[in-house]
Amino acid sequence: MLQFSKFVAVRAALAILTLVLVSFIVFTLMELVPGDCAERYVAFKNSQGSVITPEDIQIERIRLGLDQPYVQRWGSWIVNAFQGEFGDSCILRVNIAQLLGQKFWLSLGLCLSALLVAYAIAIPVGILAATSKNATLNNSLRLVSYLGLALPNFLLALMIMLFSTVMFGDSLTGLFSKEFRDAAWSYDKFKDFLGHAWLPVFILGWSATAFAIQTVRALMSDEIGKLYVTAAEARGVSGRRLLMRYPARHALSPIINSLGFDLNRIFNELPVVALILTLTEAGSLLIEALARSNDQQLAGAIIFMLTASIVGINFVTDIILALTDPRVRRSIVG
Amino acid sequence: MTEAATTLSAKDQKLKEAYFTASQSQLIWQRFKKNKSALFGAWTLIFLIFSGIFAPFLTPYDATIAGRDKDYLNGAPQIPQFCDDSGCSIRPFIYTFERTRSIKTNFRWVTEVKTELEDRRYVTFFSKGQEFKFLGLNFERHLFGVDSGMIHIFGTDSTGKDIYSRTLTAINTSMAVGTIGVFIAFVMALIIGGVAGYYGGWIDSVLQMITDTVRTIPSIPLFMALAAFVPDVWSAEMRFFFISMVLGFIGWPTLARRIRTHLLTERNQEYVLAAQLCGATPKHIIRRHLLPSFTSYIIVDLVISFPYMVLSETALSFIGLGLKDPVNSLGVMLQNVTSADVLLNYQWYFIPVIFFIVLVLAFVFVGDGLRDAADPYSDSK
Question: What range does the domain containing B194 cover?
Answer without folding.
Answer: 166-373
